[in-house]
């Protein structure tokens, strides 16, 4: 009987997780502006950057790893404010906090859905930006792998700032101030991994550090997001 009860509980939690993901995907595709704006911003940075500095291919190739990573970071920040905003405005966030269901699991599902429609899409678009910035072909695998490991961390950390500012009218600026210092290690290791791939150096160490940051964020960020939501709603 105890085993059957545990199996039912696991199935219930799994159903809650995937139901939340499905709901977030539906909401994302209904709000097409929130879905497309980060991708357009990501593309605009790569388009305008050569006009602001120099169109010389060698110069752009040297800056390409950092430019692509900064563009991905800012694009993720651009989409973070809407993560809990609609739930807060329609009252479903308050109901979620009062629900007996584990909040950290719902939060993790929301962040996963957010990453899959923003961070994963940015990762897929990254080779196009690399080509526009004359990034050598040797750097493309490092670019894709570093973004694949780094963008989930950006979403998890950014969700903490979004949860803390969900009740504020202009929370977007505060999110940037709160989470940008925490983004710096991901930015450094991600761009360094791409640079190492370009120069032919081993990039396994940088990818391992990005993976460690992701594991740390997966373990701690959902709990921090849950606590931040309770603080925001109680104030």
Automatic annotation (TrEMBL):
Q: Where are the transmembrane segments?
A: 35-53, 59-84, 104-137, 143-166, 173-194, 206-229
What the protein does comes down to:
Required for the export of heme to the periplasm for the biogenesis of c-type cytochromes.
Which Pfam family, any one of them, does this sequence belong to?
CcmB
Q: What is this protein called?
A: Heme exporter protein B
| Keyword terms, alphabetized | Cell inner membrane, Cell membrane, Cytochrome c-type biogenesis, Membrane, Transmembrane, Transmembrane helix, Transport
Task: Name its species.
Answer: Marinobacterium alkalitolerans
Q: Where in the cell is it found?
A: Cell inner membrane
Entry keyword Transport: yes
Family indicated by similarity: Belongs to the CcmB/CycW/HelB family.
Report the domain of life of the source organism. Answer: Bacteria
């Amino acid at each position: 009987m105890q085993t059957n009860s545990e199996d039912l509980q696991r199935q219930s939690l799994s159903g809650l997780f995937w139901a939340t993901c499905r709901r977030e995907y539906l909401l994302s595709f209904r709000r097409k502006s929130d879905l497309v704006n980060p991708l357009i911003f990501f593309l605009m940075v790569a388009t305008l950057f050569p006009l602001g500095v120099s169109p010389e291919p060698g110069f752009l190739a040297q800056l390409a790893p950092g430019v692509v990573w900064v563009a991905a970071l800012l694009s993720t920040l651009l989409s973070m404010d809407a993560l809990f905003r609609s739930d807060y405005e329609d009252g479903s966030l308050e109901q979620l906090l009062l629900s007996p269901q584990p909040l950290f699991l719902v939060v993790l599902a929301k962040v996963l859905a957010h990453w899959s429609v923003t961070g994963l899409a940015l990762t897929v678009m990254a080779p196009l930006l690399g080509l526009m910035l004359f990034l050598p072909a040797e750097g493309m695998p490092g670019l894709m792998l570093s973004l694949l490991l780094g963008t989930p961390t950006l979403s998890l950390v950014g969700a903490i700032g979004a949860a803390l500012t969900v009740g504020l009218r202009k929370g977007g600026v505060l999110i940037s101030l709160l989470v940008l210092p925490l983004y710096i290690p991901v930015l450094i290791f991600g761009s360094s991994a791409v640079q190492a791939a370009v120069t032919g150096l081993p990039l396994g160490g940088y990818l391992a550090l990005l993976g460690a940051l992701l594991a740390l964020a997966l373990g701690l960020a959902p709990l921090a997001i849950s606590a931040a939501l309770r603080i925001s709603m109680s104030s």
